[in-house]
Each structure stands twice: as structure tokens, then as C-alpha cells.
Automatic annotation (TrEMBL):
Compartment(s) of residence: Cytoplasm
Annotated protein name in UniProt: Ribosomal RNA large subunit methyltransferase K/L
Organism, as annotated: Acinetobacter larvae
Domain of life: Bacteria
Lineage: Bacteria, Pseudomonadati, Pseudomonadota, Gammaproteobacteria, Moraxellales
Record-linked SMART domains: THUMP
Originating gene: rlmL
Sequence similarity: Belongs to the methyltransferase superfamily. RlmKL family.
Xref: CDD domains: AdoMet_MTases, THUMP_AdoMetMT
Length: 735
């Protein structure tokens, strides 16, 4: 019988989770598997079929030929596994498989519950193979753990040890093209599996985008699939040193694969886009594309350094798009909360640019995948090495059409609330007054009521479609029961006027805070939501702290900074959650630097940036965050800035900062230090909320100082023009 027609049993291994996809792939190659086990497909077939798996499988890890089994007769409890493995290796004549001139290596896999030192056991297998050669031919082969000509894969089991020839040599995921690496890359066979699960070929996309391309694995695997490029075409295999290898058969399979690829290259290809915020990743992708043999197709691939916030307008029309990416989750980004913000930001971008198109996105945690807005999503759980990953696949939902709450709100008729009629009338009047402005200016977050009536000493703020109600603590002269009753009447009135249900209304009591108490958590609920302000999406927390993460009275200042930031280096001192820095970044700032003493607020700041598709902790340091006392930070540095924003607290102390800060007492020193860091034609904006504040004459004498408070207070704060004061400060210009 022709040796090529002789049937043998082969094991094809794969990563956990790929078994069914691999089984289908083998069937597409004309192979009929006999078993589908965890991490392994078994089939009986010809050598030609085994070679075709080596050449064409995009999903497999290894192709193994079992050649020797060693049965275990005694009980599991009293076993010397290493000695059994030695005896098993010794009991077979390995000179029938490879010559003593060849180099070899051992790969040992232990089945569950097998207890043995794997390094020592591997050494004993090697000893058994070497001693077998000495017994058979009087010569021994050499060990080469890096590039062996023969690899023996040994499975140590409870009842039997299996000795296999590894026909693949190196793992099949190593196609030979990945010369340049980035952090936490996905394995090539997993990338191919995701593309297969997403039905890339059936989608027939006109555009393929990887917005966080890393080292380019998805782009290259998609190119290989669409150009019918066999993954094994240019790599070496473990069967070359095998005495049963049929070189003529292998070369015919290789020639056929090369011909198929050349034919497919004549077909039309999609336009590929590979973006990354890291220029080194873009370069790595380009080099890997060339290493994969696709240099001639670079005209089909737009390789660009871009953040998520910097996508071009794709103008799809009737074109179909497919978006696939491996975001910098976990290992690459670090903070779980920032990761969630990243996925929210990615989802927002996909909804804006690619509604109804298909996508496949990797996540390290299922909670990250859950924020992606997809229709009928599917989830594929895989193992990328030892890291579990989740792949969320589906069609992208259209972005919801949102309008400011006040633009759709209409006054309602409701039964008068005894004891709160004046309050409900005032609240309704305020909302009617603000409605036109909020609709025209697209204002989503604003103050609806601020202690307008003495008996209802509360502030009512609107964040999107939710209300944040702060009760100013009543003086001790007021009966607590009477105050509580009045507050409950106010809440009933708020629900009646706004039409919002209890779950949309968040309540806090605001007493005068001293020292560190102002930063203490009020709750542990952490119900954070995303709100819109100008171009920015901002995370606000309506439950945990007195402050929500967004000072509404500084809205006009933030929007002014957004308008003026184009191409400028921007510094934000006492940055809090860095929303002013965020507006500057989205406005095209060349760089932003945010300084605050609180790591909690700086982490929140980074989430805001990531949510908007901006990169933090990036090598080029375009957007930097420093946990530092602003006085010390200003003194120690020397960089110059074109636009500086300072909004310090009225008073503060901290464990990190020895001493106290008082804005009236210390603003001269603060501003003088800050002006030393302001470029000659730059602008510094200074504001604070201390009602008794007076700008020191020394500042007015040293610099051009203009109070701009009226321009920085929106219509929703017109009743309370002392909510803050603000100045524009510049260096005197020579005339």
C-alpha cells in the first residue's frame, strides 16, 4: 500500500474554546474527526491530510502523531511518575523515528491530578530517549530546546503515558511574520478564530478597521484569509527531521498553496484601516505586514497614528464595514475602571461612525464587553495563553438621538401640593425660563433652582435626565421635624414639576465642611452616569461625594477654554476631575497637564479622557496627570504653557500637604508662581468660589488683570452671581 494512503491517528490541539470551530475547519479540509475533546480533535487519516492541516489550519496549535503508548498497571497513589516516563521512553526504539544526528526537544503535558516535578520529569523522558538510542545504534542525539529538528510531545496520564511526534514543531500560531511586538498581543490563531466566528468572508466588507491595531495581527490575519494565503506557507515544521517524512508530497502541497494565493491576489480587496495612538505600534504593524509578504498590498492599508477621538469621517454610503480590535485591556492599560471607560468610549465611536455594521471586540472582563452597544450580541470565551478573554460579536446599534431634557420638557398639570405651591411655581417658572437657552445651546447639565425661596433651602441640578438635589443643612434654630417635612414636600414638588421618577432623583445634605471632611464619601452606591457638555462626555457620580465631578457654575469657562485651546499647551491646576483639561484636549490642545493632590480625582480624570477616546499614560505624554501640591509643582518645574486655568478651593488641608491653603491669603504667591510658567503671549484664567474674595493690588500692578465673572456665569446662575468670581490675567505687552 502507498504510504500516503496509510491511515494513522492524529491529534490536533487548540486553545480552550476553539474546539468546535477547529472541528468545522477540519471538515472543510475534507477530514472527518472521530473525537472532539477538551483542547484536542482526533481524526484518522492519511499523511497528506495531516500535512494539509499543518499547511492550512488557521486555528490549530499543534498536529501530533501518537507513536507509542505506555500503560500504567499499578494504582495512582504509589506512583513514581518520572520513573514511569523514563521507562516508557526507554521501551520504544526512537531510531525508527529520527536519526542520532538530529537534535530534539521534549514537551511534557501533565493531565489533571498528576503530581510530579515537570522539569525533572522532562529530564527523565530525555534520558529514556537517549538510552533507547544507545541501546539501538550506540549513538545518541543532542538536545536543542530552541530550534530542535524533532519535538516529542509527551502526555503523562493517570492510566497511560502517550508519546507523540509533533509534526508542527513550533506552535502553529507562529506564522513567521510577527517580527515586531507590542504589549499583550493576541495569538495569531485566536485572531483567525475571531475572524472566522465573525464570518469575515461571508460579510464581504468594503472596509476593515482595527482602531487599536497593536502589532497588526488582525489586519494580517484578515489579509491572509481574504487572499487565500496558507498560514503554513513560509514557516518551518517539525516533520522535516522525521524519517517518515515525504518531501515530494509536502512540496506538492506547498506549490498548490502558493498557486492558490497568487490567484486570490488578483481579486478585489477591501480597504484596510489600521490605527493606533502609539506611533511605535503603527510602525510595528507596517513592518509585520511587510514580513508577512504583503508589502505589495500596502496601498490597500491606511496606517495612521490616531486616537479613538480622532477618527476620520468614513462616509460609508452603501459600503459595508467590519471593525475588529484588541483594545489595551488589563495588562496594557491597568485600571479596571479606566478599561470600562475605554470600552464605553469605543462603543460611542462605533455608534457614531458605524451604526448597523458588524464588529468583533476583545475584552479581558465580561463587564467590559457588556457596555458595548450591539444588537443580538454573541460572546466567545477563549484563552490567550493563560489569560481568559471574551470576544463580543454583533451588529452595532445606532447612536441614540438625545436632546437636552429641557428641550422636550413641557409644564404639566398636577394637583397642588399643600405647603409647596410657591416652590413648585418657582421651579416650573425657572425651567420655562431656561428651556429656550438650554435647547439652543444644547445644555444638558444645569442648575434649576438654588435656594430661591427661604423656606426651601435646596439646590436642584439637572444632569442629563437625572436630578441631584442638595439640601442645605438647616440652622439649629429650626425644628428638625419641620425641616424634614418641608424637604419631603420639596421632593414631591420636584417629581410633580419635572415628571421624573424617584429612581432619577439623588439626594444629599450639604452642611459646611471643614478640612478633609469635604472629600469623605457620602455613600457607597457608586451610580455613575455619563453626561454631555459641549463635545465632552463626562462621568459624574451622583451618590458618593458632595460634589459630583462636574462644577456646573464653571460650564461657560470650560467652553471658553475649549474654544481657545487649539494648538496650545494647557495647564490645569487644582484640576479636580480635569474636565477643563478634557475640553481643551477635545478642542485640539497640543498638550494638557492636570495637577491635583488627589489620586482619586486624577484616576477619575483619566477615565474622562479615555471615555472620550483620548490616550492617557502614553509615551509621547500629550496628556499628563500629576498628583502633587500645586505650589510645589509650580516651583519645581520650568515648562511654559500658553493657557493656564486655576480654580483653587477656598480653604484646604491635606495629609500630603503640610500646612493649609487659604485662597485670600495665598493667591498672590500662587498666581506669581503660575505666571512664571505662562508664555509671554499666554492667558491665565483664575477663579474661586470665596464670596468675600478680593484680588490683591500687587497682582493688578504686576499683570494685565481683567475681571470676567459676568462672562463666565451662565443663565442658570444669574440669581446667584456670587457663585464664583473669575479673572483673565496676561503678561503686560510692550507697546
Amino acid at each position: 500500500m502507498n504510504s500516503n494512503l496509510r491511515l494513522s491517528t492524529y491529534w490536533v490541539s487548540c486553545a480552550d474554546g476553539l474546539e468546535r470551530l477547529l472541528e468545522q475547519e477540519l471538515q472543510d479540509l475534507g477530514i472527518h474527526p472521530s473525537e472532539c475533546l477538551a483542547g484536542r480533535i482526533v481524526f484518522k487519516g492519511t499523511l497528506e491530510q495531516a500535512y494539509r492541516v499543518c499547511m492550512w489550519s488557521r486555528l490549530a496549535s499543534r498536529v501530533l502523531l501518537p507513536i507509542h503508548f505506555f500503560d500504567i498497571e499499578h494504582s495512582h497513589d504509589a506512583r513514581d511518575v518520572a520513573e514511569e516516563l523514563y521507562q516508557g521512553a526507554l521501551s520504544f526504539d526512537w531510531s525508527l523515528i529520527f536519526s542520532p544526528q538530529s537534535t530534539f526537544a521534549i514537551r511534557l503535558h501533565l493531565e489533571r491530578d498528576i503530581k510530579v516535578n515537570s522539569q525533572f520529569a522532562t529530564l527523565r523522558v530525555k534520558d529514556g530517549v537517549v538510552d533507547s538510542f544507545m541501546d539501538a545504534v550506540g549513538r545518541r542525539p543532542s538536545i536543542d530546546t530552541k530550534q530542535p529538528e524533532i519535538t516529542l510531545s509527551v502526555v503523562a496520564g493517570k492510566h497511560q503515558h502517550s508519546f507523540c511526534l509533533d509534526l508542527s514543531g513550533d506552535s502553529l500560531h507562529k506564522r513567521g511574520y510577527r517580527r515586531y511586538m507590542t504589549d499583550a498581543p493576541i495569538k495569531e490563531n485566536l485572531a483567525a478564530a475571531i475572524l472566522e466566528k465573525a464570518q469575515l468572508k461571508q460579510l464581504h466588507p468594503d472596509i476593515i478597521l482595527d482602531p487599536m491595531c497593536g502589532s497588526g495581527t488582525f489586519i494580517i490575519e484578515a489579509l491572509m484569509i481574504l487572499t487565500d494565503r496558507a498560514p503554513g506557507l513560509v514557516r518551518r515544521f517539525g516533520f522535516n527531521g522525521w524519517q517518515g517524512h515525504d518531501q515530494e508530497l509536502w512540496m506538492s502541497i506547498k506549490a498548490e498553496a502558493a498557486e492558490r494565493h497568487q490567484h486570490a491576489l488578483q481579486q478585489d480587496l477591501p480597504q484596510f484601516y489600521a490605527f493606533d495612538a502609539d506611533w511605535d505600534a503603527v510602525k510595528a504593524t507596517r513592518q509585520n505586514i511587510i514580513a508577512a509578504g504583503f508589502e505589495s498590498l500596502l496601498d490597500h492599508i491606511k496606517l495612521e497614528e490616531r486616537t479613538l477621538a480622532d477618527w476620520p469621517d468614513f462616509k460609508l454610503g452603501q459600503q459595508r464595514a467590519f471593525i475588529v480590535t484588541n483594545p489595551p485591556y488589563g495588562e496594557r492599560l491597568g485600571e479596571k475602571s479606566s478599561n470600562r471607560a475605554l470600552y464605553l468610549g469605543l462603543s460611542n465611536q462605533l455608534q457614531q461612525h458605524f451604526a448597523q455594521q458588524h464588529t468583533a471586540i476583545i475584552a479581558a472582563h465580561i463587564e467590559q464587553a457588556d457596555v458595548l452597544a450591539l444588537n443580538d450580541p454573541q460572546t466567545l470565551r477563549l484563552m490567550n495563553g493563560r489569560l481568559p478573554i471574551y470576544v463580543r460579536l454583533g451588529q452595532i446599534k445606532a447612536a441614540p438621538v438625545t436632546a437636552p431634557f429641557l428641550s422636550t420638557w413641557e409644564p404639566a398639570t398636577f394637583e397642588a401640593i399643600d405647603g409647596a405651591v410657591d416652590f413648585t411655581n418657582r421651579l416650573q417658572k425657572n425651567m420655562q425660563t431656561l428651556k429656550k437657552w438650554a435647547s439652543k445651546e444644547q445644555v444638558y447639565c444645569l442648575r434649576l433652582y438654588d435656594a430661591d425661596l427661604p423656606d426651601f433651602n435646596i439646590a436642584v441640578d439637572l444632569y442629563g435626565d437625572r436630578l441631584h438635589v442638595q439640601e442645605y443643612a438647616p440652622p439649629k434654630s429650626i425644628d428638625p421635624e419641620k425641616a424634614k417635612k418641608r424637604f419631603n414636600l420639596a421632593l414631591a414638588g420636584i417629581r410633580a414639576v419635572t415628571g421624573l421618577t424617584r429612581d432619577k432623583i439623588f439626594i444629599k445634605t450639604r452642611a459646611r465642611q471643614e478640612g478633609k471632611n469635604q472629600y469623605l464619601k457620602q455613600s457607597t452606591a457608586s451610580k455613575r452616569i455619563i453626561v454631555q457638555e459641549g463635545r465632552a462626555k463626562i462621568l459624574v457620580n451622583l451618590t458618593d461625594y458632595l460634589d459630583t465631578g462636574l462644577f456646573l457654575d464653571h460650564r461657560q469657562m470650560r467652553l471658553r477654554i475649549a474654544q481657545e485651546a487649539q494648538g496650545k499647551h494647557v495647564l490645569n491646576l487644582y484640576s479636580y476631575t480635569s474636565t477643563a483639561s478634557l475640553h481643551a484636549a477635545l478642542g485640539g490642545a497640543a498638550s494638557t497637564t492636570s495637577v491635583d493632590l488627589s489620586n482619586t480625582y486624577l484616576n477619575w480624570s483619566k477615565e474622562n479622557f479615555v471615555l472620550n477616546g483620548l490616550t492617557v499614560d502614553h509615551p509621547d505624554q500629550q496628556h499628563q496627570f500629576f498628583a502633587s501640591d500645586c505650589f510645589e509643582w509650580l516651583k519645581e518645574g520650568h515648562e511654559q504653557y500658553d493657557l493656564i486655568f486655576i480654580d483653587p478651593p477656598t480653604f484646604s488641608n491635606s495629609k500630603k500637604f503640610y500646612g493649609t491653603f487659604d485662597v485670600q491669603r495665598d493667591h498672590v504667591s500662587l498666581l506669581k508662581r503660575a505666571m512664571n510658567r505662562l508664555s509671554s503671549h499666554g492667558t491665565l484664567y483664575f477663579s474661586n468660589n470665596y464670596r468675600g474674595f478680593e484680588m490683591d493690588e500687587e497682582i493688578e500692578a504686576l499683570f494685565d488683570t481683567q475681571e470676567i465673572s459676568d462672562y463666565t456665569i451662565g443663565p442658570d446662575f444669574k440669581r446667584n452671581r456670587k457663585i464664583h468670581r473669575a479673572w483673565k490675567i496676561t503678561h503686560p505687552q510692550a507697546h
